[in-house]
C-alpha cells in the first residue's frame, strides 16, 4: 500500500522539486539574490499566474479553455482605448471584468447546451474574441490610466503588490477547494456521469468555471496593461493560451480532470519564468529559453504520464487500456 | 436457471450489396457533403456579385492558396481521426522552409535539403508518436512542447534570425506552388493526385482502417489485434511529413522562408479538419472534407479581401464558421461515443 | 394488451406509485404506460429480460431519467423528480448499477459529495470531520476493511460497491433502489447486504431490487413484479411464483425443455498446458491442461483471478510461467501473439472493450482479419470484405437492416453476436470466454450455448469463465474453481454441480472431500 501511495504522489512532489531546482540555478547564475530581480520575476509571471487560475479550474473539470488568449487580448484592447483617464477607469474597469466573465459564461453555456467539445468551442471563441480585439485596437498602443498603474504596481506597506495579488489568488483557491463547489469541480472532472448521479449540477458547475476563466483572463489583462506594458495590445493574450496549459500540466494537474491543484500551476508558471531568467543571466540568446521551456514541458508530461502508466500497471483493475 | 430456450423467430438474410447503396454508409458521408455544399454555395454566391471571381486565373489562385493548407491538413486529419492532435505543425513548416532556402544552389543541394527535411520530420514525428503512444501522454501538451522545442532549436541554428533566411527557393517548388498547365493550376493537379492517394490510404489500407478503429474505441481496437502503438506513431510521422511538404510548398509560394512562416497554420490546419466534418473525438472524418474546408477558408479570405475588410473580420468569421459547421455535424450525428 | 392482474388501487393504498409511465429512446420503447406500486417496509423485486423496462422504471423513480409521461406519487401526493438531487430530497436513494463513485476523490469525500458535507466554523469543508463521520458510518454498517482516506478508484471493484452501498444507506432513505447492486460483490458481502437491506425494510423503507440472479429475488423479496416489453405483466407476493412461472412471465412463452444433449467427449490430445502461471497480485501458481474439444469452466467468486488468467492467456497482461501449445512453448506478450497462436478472447464488456460503436457492422466484423481481403496492390478489396462480413452475420443470425448500420443501433444481444462473429472469424481453435453472458437475456444466452456446442464438436477447445454456476453445469467437461487467486479445486464431470461449485467458491473445497 505504502509503495503505491508514494508513486501517486509524484504529481505533487515533482513540480515542487522542479521549482526549487530551477530557483537554485537562477540564483546561482545571477551570483546574488536581489530582491528587485525576484520582484521582476513575480511581476512578469503574474499574468500567467492569474490566467492559470481559471485554466486550472477548467482543466480540473476535464475541459480546456483556449479562448483565454482572446479574452485577455480583448480586455487589454478595451482598457487601452476606453480607460485612459481615471474617470473612464471607474466605469471601464468593472466593465472589462464583466466582459471577461460574460465571455467565459458564453463559452460555458455553449459547451453545456450544444454538447460540442470544449476544445472546439473555445478554439472558435478564441478566434472571435481575437478578431474583436483587433477591431477595438488594431495595433499595439493606446494608453493606460495613471490610477490603474498606481493601483497595480509598486508596493503596499513595503510588500510588492504583485506578491499581494499572488497571495490573494492562492487564498481564493484554498478557500474554493474547501467549498461544495470546489468538490463539485473535481467530481465533474473525475466522472461526469457519476457526479450527476450524486446530485451535482454538472451544467452549472461547468458554466461557472468557464466564467471564472474569462474573469481571470480579464484580471490578467488589467495587470498586464497597468503594471507591465502601460499600454494595450490586441495580441496580449496569445502566448498565454498554451503557456497556461503548460503551467497547469507541469503543476501536476491532469488534463483528463478530477485531479490536481492550483498551487502546482503557480509553481509551474514560476518554473517557466525561471528558465527565461536563467537564460538571460547566463548571457544566452532568448530563443534558448523557448527551447528549454519546450524541453521542460515535454519532460514533465512524459514523466507524469509514465508514472501514471506505472501505477496502472501495478494495480490493474478491470480490463483497461494498460 | 433451468433449461436452455430456443428462439423461434426467423431472421432476414443480410445480402452483401454494394456499400454505397446502403443507408448507413450514406449517412456517414453527410458531413462531407455538407462541407462541399458550403464550398459550392459560397463560390456561386460570390461569383454572382463579383464577376471576376470565377475566372480561371482566380480559381488557380484559390487553389494555390489552399493546397498548402490542404497538405498540412492531410496529416492533421489522420492524427485527429485517431484521437490525437498535432500542434507541432508550425515548427515543422518553418524548418522545412528554412532548410530549403539555405540550399538554393542547384540540383544536388535540393536533394540534400529534402533528405534533411525528411529526417527531421520523421524524428519529430517519432518524438511525438512515441511519447503519446507509449507513455500515453496527452497529445495537446506533447505536440505543443515539441513545437516550442523545435522552433527554439530552429532559431538556435539560424542564430535568432526571424526574417528571411537563406537564399532563393528552388525553381521546382515555385512552379508547383504557383504555376499552371494550360488553364489548370499545377498545384491543382498535384492536389488531385494527393487526394486520390489519401482516400485510398484511409479507406482501402489496413493502416487507414486501424486509424479509424483506434479513434473509435482504442481498447476494442487493441483487443482486435490492431497494432495501436505502431499505427499512432505512424500517424504522427505522417503528419510531420505532410507539414514538411506544406512548408516546402509555402516557401515556393512566398518565394522566401523564415522560421515563423507556419504560425497561422496551427489554427487553420485544425479548423479545416473540423469544418470538413471530422469529429475532434476521433473515429470519423475524411480527407475530402478537409479539402472542402481548405477551399472554403480561401474563398472566405477572398470575400473579405473584396469587401476590403481586415484580418480581424477573418478571425471572427473563422471562429463562427467552426462553430456553425461543428454544430451542424453534431446535430446530424447525435450518437454516443465510447470514451 | 395489458395482462396485469386486477389493480387493487381503490381498496389498498400504496405508499409509492408510478402510474402510466412511458419512456421512449428514439424509436425504442423502454416503457409503455407501465405502472408499479410499492409499500413501505417491503422488499419489491423487479425482474425481466434486458430491455424489458425494469431498469428504466427504477431510473425514473431515482430521478436520473425523466419520463415522457406518467406520474409518480409518494405518500399519495404527486412528486416531480427530474434530478437525482430532487429525488434525494424526497428520501429516495439509489445504488446504481454503474457505480456513482468519483474515482479521483477519497472515500470520505465520496460519502458526502452532493449532500451537506461536514463543515468547520468558517463554513468550509472539514476533511478530518468527514473522515471520522465516515468511519462512524462504516462502523454502524459493519464495514471494517475500507480506508476512508483511500482514493476511491484505487479500491477493488467489490469494495467500491460496498462504499456505494454505504453512501446510500447512510442517508437513511425512505425508498431504496438497488440496481444490480450485487453484481461485483463477494458472496459474504452479498449476505451482509441482504442483512442490511432487511434491517432497512424492518425500519420501514420501501426497497426496489433489480437483479438478474433470480435466486436473489426468492431469497430476499416480499413481492415480485415482472416486466416484459415495457409493461408490468405480473405482480404479486413472492410465494405466488416459482422459478418456472417467473421465467415464463419474463419470456412470455413456455419454456421449451431442450433434450439434455450430452457434450461430445473431448479428444485425448492435450492442446494447452499451463504451468505455474502468475500474474502479479491477481493470479498465483495456476497450472492445468486443456484437451482438444474440451470445455473447461472457470468458476469462483468475483475477483479471484479469473479475468486476469484469461487476460494473461490472451497476452493482455504480463505474467510469469509457461504456456505450452501443442507441445511447443509460446510467448504471449500481446494480443497479436495470442492470435497468431490461435487463441482468441471474447471480452467481458462488449460496449467498452469489444466493439467500435460508431463504426459499421461490417467494419467491426472484419477488423481483426483485414489481411484476408487484400486484393490489388495490398489494398482491401471491397467485394471480398463485404462478402465475408455478410457470411459471418448470416451465420450468427444478426438482426439488422444492413451491414453498414452502426453497431450502436443494435440491441444488446445482437451486439454480442457481432462481437462473437468478430472473434470467431479468427478461426482460432482455442477460445477464451470472459463472463460473456453476464447481463445477457435468456434468448441470446441459449443461442450462444448452441454456438459453443457446435464449436466444440468441431474440435475447438474452450475456457469458459462464468459467474453463473448453472451455466457451468450445463456447459463444461471440467470446472476449475478459483479461490484465493489460484485454482483450489478441479471438478471432474461427475463432480460438477451447482452446489459443489458454490461451496468450492466460498471455501475452496467440497464436502469433506479432496482438494486439488
Overview of the structural elements:
- With 322 residues, chain A is mainly α.
- Chain A has helices at 2-8, 10-30, 35-60, 68-82, 86-114, 118-136, 146-152, 161-177, 180-190, 192-197, 202-229, 238-250, 262-281, 287-314, and strands at residues 155-156, 159-160.
- Chain A has a two-stranded antiparallel ribbon.
- Chain A is globular and about 60 Å long.
- The model of chain B is unreliable at 1-11 (pLDDT under 50).
- Chain B has a single domain (32-328), classed as ABC transporter involved in vitamin B12 uptake, BtuC.
- The radius of gyration of chain B is 22 Å and the shape is globular.
- In chain B, α2 runs antiparallel to α14 and α12 crosses α13.
- Chain B is mostly helical and 339 residues long.
- Chain C is an alpha/beta fold and 516 residues long.
- Chain C has 2 domains: 28-105 and 172-251, P-loop containing nucleotide triphosphate hydrolases (Rossmann fold, 3-Layer(aba) Sandwich), CATH 3.40.50.300; 270-507, P-loop containing nucleotide triphosphate hydrolases (Rossmann fold, 3-Layer(aba) Sandwich).
- Chain C contains 17 helices and 20 strands.
- Chain C has helices at 54-62, 84-89, 107-112, 127-141, 157-170, 187-202, 214-220, 243-251, 306-313, 335-340, 350-354, 361-366, 382-396, 412-424, 442-457, 469-475, 498-507; strands at residues 16-25, 28-38, 42-47, 69-74, 77-79, 92-95, 175-179, 206-210, 223-228, 231-237, 270-279, 283-291, 295-300, 320-325, 328-329, 343-346, 430-434, 461-465, 478-483, 486-491.
- A 6-stranded mixed β-sheet of chain C has the order 6-7-8-3-9-10, sandwiched between helices. A 6-stranded mixed β-sheet of chain C has the order 16-17-18-13-19-20, sandwiched between helices. Chain C has a 4-stranded antiparallel β-sheet with strand order 2-1-4-5, with helices on one face.
- In chain C, α13 (382-396) crosses α14 (412-424).
- The radius of gyration of chain C is 25 Å and the shape is globular.
- The N and C termini of chain C lie far apart (55 Å).
- The relative contact order of chain C is 0.10.
- The interface between B and C is large, with 46 and 65 residues.
Amino acid at each position: 500500500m505504502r509503495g503505491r501511495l508514494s508513486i501517486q504522489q509524484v504529481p505533487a512532489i515533482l513540480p515542487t522539486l522542479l521549482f526549487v531546482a530551477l530557483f537554485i540555478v537562477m540564483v546561482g547564475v545571477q551570483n546574488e539574490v536581489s530582491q528587485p530581480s525576484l520582484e521582476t520575476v513575480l511581476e512578469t509571471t503574474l499574468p500567467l499566474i492569474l490566467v492559470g487560475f481559471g485554466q486550472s479550474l477548467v482543466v480540473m473539470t476535464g475541459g480546456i479553455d483556449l479562448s483565454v488568449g482572446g479574452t485577455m487580448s480583448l480586455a487589454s484592447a478595451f482598457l487601452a482605448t476606453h480607460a485612459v483617464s481615471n474617470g473612464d477607469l471607474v466605469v471601464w474597469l468593472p466593465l472589462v471584468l464583466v466582459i471577461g466573465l460574460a465571455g467565459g459564461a458564453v463559452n460555458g453555456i455553449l459547451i453545456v447546451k450544444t454538447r460540442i467539445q470544449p476544445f472546439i468551442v473555445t478554439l472558435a471563441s478564441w478566434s472571435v474574441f481575437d478578431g474583436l480585439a483587433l477591431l477595438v485596437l488594431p495595433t499595439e498602443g493606446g494608453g493606460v490610466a495613471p490610477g490603474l498603474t498606481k493601483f497595480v504596481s509598486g508596493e503596499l506597506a513595503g510588500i510588492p503588490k504583485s506578491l499581494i495579488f499572488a497571495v490573494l489568488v492562492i487564498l481564493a483557491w484554498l478557500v474554493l477547494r474547501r467549498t461544495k463547489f470546489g468538490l463539485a469541480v473535481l467530481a465533474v472532472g473525475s466522472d461526469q456521469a457519476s457526479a450527476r448521479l450524486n446530485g451535482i449540477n454538472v451544467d452549472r458547475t461547468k458554466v461557472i468555471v468557464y466564467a471564472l476563466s474569462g474573469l481571470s483572463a480579464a484580471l490578467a489583462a488589467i495587470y498586464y496593461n497597468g503594471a507591465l506594458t502601460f499600454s494595450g495590445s490586441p495580441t496580449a493574450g496569445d502566448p498565454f493560451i498554451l503557456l497556461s496549459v503548460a503551467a497547469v500540466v507541469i503543476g501536476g494537474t491532469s488534463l483528463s480532470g478530477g485531479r490536481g491543484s492550483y498551487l502546482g500551476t503557480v509553481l509551474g508558471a514560476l518554473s517557466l519564468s525561471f528558465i527565461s531568467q536563467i537564460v538571460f543571466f547566463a548571457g544566452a540568446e532568448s530563443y534558448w529559453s523557448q527551447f528549454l521551456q519546450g524541453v521542460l514541458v515535454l519532460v514533465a508530461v512524459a514523466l507524469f504520464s509514465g508514472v501514471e502508466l506505472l501505477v496502472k500497471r501495478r494495480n490493474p483493475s478491470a480490463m483497461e487500456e494498460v | 436457471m433451468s433449461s436452455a430456450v430456443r428462439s423461434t423467430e426467423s431472421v432476414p438474410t443480410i445480402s452483401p450489396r454494394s456499400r454505397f447503396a446502403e443507408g448507413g454508409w450514406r449517412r456517414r458521408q453527410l458531413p462531407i457533403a455538407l462541407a462541399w455544399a458550403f464550398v459550392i454555395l459560397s463560390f456561386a454566391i460570390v461569383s454572382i456579385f463579383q464577376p471576376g471571381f470565377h475566372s480561371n486565373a482566380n480559381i488557380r489562385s484559390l487553389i494555390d492558396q489552399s493546397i498548402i493548407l490542404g497538405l498540412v491538413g492531410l496529416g492533421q486529419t489522420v492524427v485527429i481521426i485517431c484521437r490525437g492532435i498535432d500542434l507541432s505543425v508550425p515548427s515543422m513548416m518553418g524548418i522545412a522552409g528554412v532548410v530549403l532556402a539555405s540550399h538554393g544552389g542547384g540540383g544536388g543541394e535540393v536533394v540534400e535539403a529534402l533528405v534533411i527535411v525528411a529526417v527531421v520530420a520523421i524524428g519529430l514525428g517519432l518524438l511525438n508518436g512515441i511519447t503519446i503512444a507509449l507513455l500515453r501522454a496527452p497529445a495537446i501538451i506533447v505536440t505543443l512542447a515539441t513545437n516550442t522545442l523545435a522552433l527554439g532549436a530552429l532559431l538556435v541554428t539560424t542564430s535568432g534570425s526571424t526574417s528571411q533566411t537563406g537564399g532563393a527557393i528552388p525553381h521546382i517548388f515555385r512552379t508547383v506552388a504557383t504555376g499552371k498547365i494550360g488553364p489548370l493550376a499545377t498545384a491543382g493537379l498535384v492536389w488531385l493526385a494527393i487526394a486520390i492517394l489519401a482516400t485510398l490510404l484511409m479507406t482501402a489500407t489496413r493502416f487507414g482502417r486501424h486509424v479509424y478503429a483506434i479513434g473509435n474505441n482504442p481498447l476494442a481496437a487493441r483487443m482486435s489485434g490492431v497494432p495501436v502503438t505502431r499505427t499512432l506513431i505512424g500517424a504522427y510521422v505522417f503528419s510531420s511529413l505532410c507539414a514538411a511538404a506544406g512548408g516546402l510548398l509555402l516557401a515556393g509560394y512566398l518565394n522566401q522562408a523564415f522560421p515563423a512562416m507556419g504560425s497561422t497554420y496551427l489554427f487553420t490546419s485544425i479548423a479545416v479538419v473540423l469544418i470538413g466534418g471530422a469529429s475532434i473525438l476521433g473515429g470519423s472524418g475524411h480527407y475530402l472534407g478537409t479539402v472542402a474546408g481548405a477551399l472554403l477558408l480561401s474563398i472566405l479570405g477572398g470575400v473579405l479581401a473584396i469587401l476590403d475588410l481586415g484580418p480581424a473580420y477573418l478571425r471572427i468569421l473563422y471562429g463562427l464558421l467552426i462553430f456553425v459547421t461543428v454544430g451542424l455535424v453534431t446535430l446530424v450525428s447525435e450518437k454516443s461515443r465510447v470514451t | 394488451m395489458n395482462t396485469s392482474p386486477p389493480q387493487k388501487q381503490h381498496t389498498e393504498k400504496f405508499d409509492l406509485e408510478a402510474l402510466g409511465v412511458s419512456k421512449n429512446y428514439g424509436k425504442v420503447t423502454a416503457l409503455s404506460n407501465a405502472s408499479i406500486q410499492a409499500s413501505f417496509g417491503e422488499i419489491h423485486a423487479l425482474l425481466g429480460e434486458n430491455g424489458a423496462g425494469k431498469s428504466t422504471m427504477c431510473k425514473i423513480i431515482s430521478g436520473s431519467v425523466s419520463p415522457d409521461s406518467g406520474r409518480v406519487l409518494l405518500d399519495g401526493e404527486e412528486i416531480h423528480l427530474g434530478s437525482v438531487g430532487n429525488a434525494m430530497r424526497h428520501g429516495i436513494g439509489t445504488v446504481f448499477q454503474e457505480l456513482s463513485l468519483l474515482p479521483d476523490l477519497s472515500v470520505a469525500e465520496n460519502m458526502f459529495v452532493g449532500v451537506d458535507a461536514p463543515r468547520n466554523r468558517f463554513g468550509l469543508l472539514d476533511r478530518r470531520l468527514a473522515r471520522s463521520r465516515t468511519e462512524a458510518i462504516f462502523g454502524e454498517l459493519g464495514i471494517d476493511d475500507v480506508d476512508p482516506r483511500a482514493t476511491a478508484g484505487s479500491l477493488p471493484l467489490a469494495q467500491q460497491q460496498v462504499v456505494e452501498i454505504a453512501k446510500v444507506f447512510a442517508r437513511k432513505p425512505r425508498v431504496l433502489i438497488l440496481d444490480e447492486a450485487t453484481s461485483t460483490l463477494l458472496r459474504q458481502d452479498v449476505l451482509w447486504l441482504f442483512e442490511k437491506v432487511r434491517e432497512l425494510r424492518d425500519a420501514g423503507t420501501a426497497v426496489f431490487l433489480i437483479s438478474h440472479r433470480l435466486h436473489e429475488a426468492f431469497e430476499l423479496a416480499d413481492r415480485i413484479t415482472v416486466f416484459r416489453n415495457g409493461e408490468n405483466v405480473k405482480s404479486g407476493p413472492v410465494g405466488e411464483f416459482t422459478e418456472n412461472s417467473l421465467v415464463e412471465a419474463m419470456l412470455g412463452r413456455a419454456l421449451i425443455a431442450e433434450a439434455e444433449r450430452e457434450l461430445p467427449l473431448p479428444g485425448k490430445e492435450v492442446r494447452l498446458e499451463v504451468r505455474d502461471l502468475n500474474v502479479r497480485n491477481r493470479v498465483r501458481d495456476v497450472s492445468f491442461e486443456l484437451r482438444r474439444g474440451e470445455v473447461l469452466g472457470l468458476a469462483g467468486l468475483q475477483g479471484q483471478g479469473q479475468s486476469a488468467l484469461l487476460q494473461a492467456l490472451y497476452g493482455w497482461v504480463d505474467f510469469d510461467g509457461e504456456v505450452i501449445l501443442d507441445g511447443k512453448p509460446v510467448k504471449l506478450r500481446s494480443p497479436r501473439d495470442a492470435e497468431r497462436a490461435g487463441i482468441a478472447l471474447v471480452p467481458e464488456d462488449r460496449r467498452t472493450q469489444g466493439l467500435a460503436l460508431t463504426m459499421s457492422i461490417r467494419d467491426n466484423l472484419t477488423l481483426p482479419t483485414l489481411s484476408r481481403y487484400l486484393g490489388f496492390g495490398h489494398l482491401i478489396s471491397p467485394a471480398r470484405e463485404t462478402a465475408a462480413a455478410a457470411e459471418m452475420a448470416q451465420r450468427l443470425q444478426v438482426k439488422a437492416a444492413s451491414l453498414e448500420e452502426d453497431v450502436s443501433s443494435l440491441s444488446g444481444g445482437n451486439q454480442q453476436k457481432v462481437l462473437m462473429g468478430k472473434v470467431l472469424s479468427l478461426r482460432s481453435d482455442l477460445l477464451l470466454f470472459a463472463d460473456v453472458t453476464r447481463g445477457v437475456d435468456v434468448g441470446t444466452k441459449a443461442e450462444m450455448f448452441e454456438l459453443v456446442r457446435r464449436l466444440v464438436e468441431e474440435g475447438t477447445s474452450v475456457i469458459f469463465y462464468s459467474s453463473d454456476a448453472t451455466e457451468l453445469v450445463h456447459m463444461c467437461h471440467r470446472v476449475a474453481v478459483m479461490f484465493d487467486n489460484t485454482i483450489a479445486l478441479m471438478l471432474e464431470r461427475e463432480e460438477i454441480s451447482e452446489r459443489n461449485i458454490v461451496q468450492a467458491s466460498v471455501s475452496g473445497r467440497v464436502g469433506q472431500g479432496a482438494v486439488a
